[in-house]
Amino acid sequence: MQTARLSIIIPILNEVDNIRPLVSALEKALSTLSWEVIFVDDHSSDGTMNVVRALAQENPHVRGLCRIGRKGLSSAVIEGAMSSSSPFIAVMDGDLQHDETCLLPMMHALETEGYDLAVASRYVAGGKDSGLAHKGRRFLSQVGCWFIRLILKTPLSDPMSGFFVIRRKHIDQQVEKLSGKGFKILLDIILANPSPLRTKEVAMVFRPRQHGQSKLNWKIILSFGKMLLHHLWIKFPSKT
Ligand code: GDD
Ligand code: MN
To answer: Which of 9, 176, 180, 235 shows the greatest Cβ crowding within 10 Å of its Cβ?
Structure first.
């Protein structure tokens, strides 16, 4: 078996019905690439990890990491990335809302075109956020993106995206600076990197959730603020 060039890190919490269809979709989309998928589960109560382990017995592309007594999308991604060795890391949701066919164009941007980071964006031509659960959620996401673009002066159209491919050195070299709090691991990584990453955006239609429920809640939104403060603190440490 070839070693993986791309490790796809997928944080999961109670996604039992999404694992098999997601792996089938990845197999179909990535037939020309050597890849692995690492599911990072926070001890789900619905048997998600049992499905991951059964699948890993059948399919050498599949690995799983089960964390006990810990929670959180971003910290799960960091631990999954640290457990892999591939030169390229993808981060993707485990609920089929991210379109797996974006992975090849994102890998091409890094491997062939020399970019450091490729982000699947809902807000470039051809992209859509129609899969977000309701109007309020779309509004929240759009306002969040606008706010982040304003305060960070980032040219990214979708800084709140949770679907991207990055050269592993941009995680490895900054890993101690990451906050690991909340859902926004892409922003966490961008803020931890001292100089801007050469970034390409790839249009994505964000799909509606078919099985299970979103884990977004007010505590997670608060964690977003904590993550931003963490980076402000690193940039402007208290003099006292
Ligand atoms: N291990 C682990 N631990 N996984 C988690 C946790 C956790 O505490 N919380 C959520 N996840 C997993 C979910 O199981 C799913 O695979 C993925 O993280 C995204 O979680 P959702 O609950 O589906 O998030 P969402 O759809 O509301 O938000 C997504 O969309 C945003 C775009 O608006 C996330 O992908 C965000 O990262 C993305 O920015
Ligand atoms: Mn989701």
So the answer is: 9
Residues with CB under 6 A from ligand 1: 11-13, 15, 40-42, 71-73, 76, 93-95, 97, 141, 160-162, 183, 214-216
- Say if residues 36 and 8 touch (Cβ distance below 8 Å): yes
DSSP 100-114: GGGHHHHHHHHHTT-
Q: Give this prediction's pTM.
A: 0.95
Question: Running DSSP on this structure, what letter comes out for residue 199?
Answer: E
- Ligand 1 atom at shortest distance from the alpha carbon of 183: 37
Which ligand 1 atom is nearest residue 215's CA? Answer: 22
Q: What is the pLDDT of residues 179-206, one digit of tens each?
A: 999 999 999 999 999 999 999 999 999 9
